[in-house]
TrEMBL record:
Catalytic activity: GTP + 4 H2O = 2,5-diamino-6-hydroxy-4-(5-phosphoribosylamino)-pyrimidine + formate + 2 phosphate + 3 H(+)
Keyword Cell division listed: no
Species of the source: Helianthus annuus
GO BP: riboflavin biosynthetic process
Pathway membership: Cofactor biosynthesis; riboflavin biosynthesis; 5-amino-6-(D-ribitylamino)uracil from GTP: step 1/4
Domain GTP cyclohydrolase II: 55-221
Record GO cellular component, one term: chloroplast
Cofactor(s) in the UniProt record: Zn(2+)
Name of protein: GTP cyclohydrolase II
Amino acid sequence: MDFLTPVYLLAALLIGTTLQSSSPPILNEATIFSVGFLVIALSLYKKKINKIVKRVSSARLPTACGSFVVYCYKSMSDGLEHVAIVKGEIGKGKNVLVRVHSECLTGDIFGSARCDCGNQLELAMKLIEEAGRGVVVYLRGHEGRGIGLGHKLRAYNLQDNGRDTVQANEDLGLPVDSRDYGIGAQILKDLGVKTMKLMTNNPIKCIKLKGYGLEVSERVPIVTPITKDNKRYLETKEAKMGHLYSLGTQNAIY
């Protein structure tokens, strides 16, 4: 019965194989697709209804961008610690200015010019300081859009040899973007956020967060300087990943 993983359990239900069978169900292409879809759907549903992160601690955090309160959250599945940086009172949680930021060691810490991550994080904190109210959720484990630091550096070498950021991931046999925002959504809910003005150039992020029960009332572009080092990277995200940089779409909902 070792083959009775969630995938095979679902497959058995789909094609009518008894769970007491001594051999795994035979999966055709259509069944594999259906099972894969159901596994993803069940995973999202579990993260939507089950508590997967807990608040650990908080403290006052003076920064170059202003004074905030920092919260540490711990994932109950893998032990990773995530961060929320909060300005002002969330109140009833309506139309809170929010940035859900993916960890980028090279950009956020070392100021890499290959991407716009560090600049986006700094700008988000400045905009929240100006607004007097808002949240930055900093998600660990998102390095390289989910592929990890080691693979990201391998992808950089491929990019130096002519591949773009999408092609480099594909050449390594890795997903273009495997990030999940379930933990980020639960952190925002724990802080009392109900509807948000989401600072992002990525419409897919809006869709994913809405899938976890949060309302995006406005998408706020977070436009940072284009340099010779990140120009192709930003152009690729716009052309191949649907990122939007036009200020004219600032109030669009996605």
